[in-house]
Amino acid sequence: MSTEMEGDGRIRMRKKLTRQITTSATSPNSSKSCFCPINALDDGCLMHIFSFLSPIPDRYNTALVCHRWCFLACHPRLWLRVDRSIKSLSEPGVFPDIEAAVMAARPGDTILVATGGLHHTSNIQIKKPLCLIGGGVHPEETTLVCSRGSDSALELLSTCKISNLTVKAELGCCLLHRSGRLIIDGCVLQCESDPLDYLSFPIVSTASGSKLFEPPPIKSQADGVTVSGTRIEGGAKAISIMGTLALQRVRATYGRASIFFWFDVL
What we know:
By secondary structure, the protein is an alpha/beta fold. It contains five helices and 18 strands. Strand 17 (247-254) and strand 18 form a beta hairpin.
């Protein structure tokens, strides 16, 4: 009960902060930001407030308010960035590849993957709670490629969220879910056409869930996969379940050239 109350409190706080920030940014007096009460707070306090906002679009939008908010909203303490075009490794919070960003990240960090080019990923293990978000408007603008011979692009062993990314696998799977809660939102998962298509799966889950005679875990901490608004292409089937979890609440929307899926594995 206390966990649910804390979760509801965080949601209410996030909505309240979003309304305040939006009002400050769109009001006629927004140019006089120095007179806004929230700007009387020091940088550390303001950055802590920004940490409660969802990275996309709320925290991203705060960076458009003024130069100070842009500096704080883009601070490495709030999220890390992966940019293949980076020339200097001295810039804090910016990394040339996803594996380096994952290794440097702290539990709960958000990693923003820049658009353009292909980000090569191969069997990258994520053992801490992280959020990976594509930096483009559409998932097709940020592509992760898993080369032939690799088991997966990303191997998830903790609670993670993958959003607004395209993940391609030549042979194997795009995402390998071992344990924790995996949320896949607004992505594109593609298995390349191959004579060995029957060996390919966009998502593979080997999680076993809670064991017999163990108290049921808190819902947010239980093993499972939640897929929403995600386009899945190729492979033998959308997901291969090798553990004790079960596919539930499947829904699909058919477009002109693609199918978008919503389902849970619990």
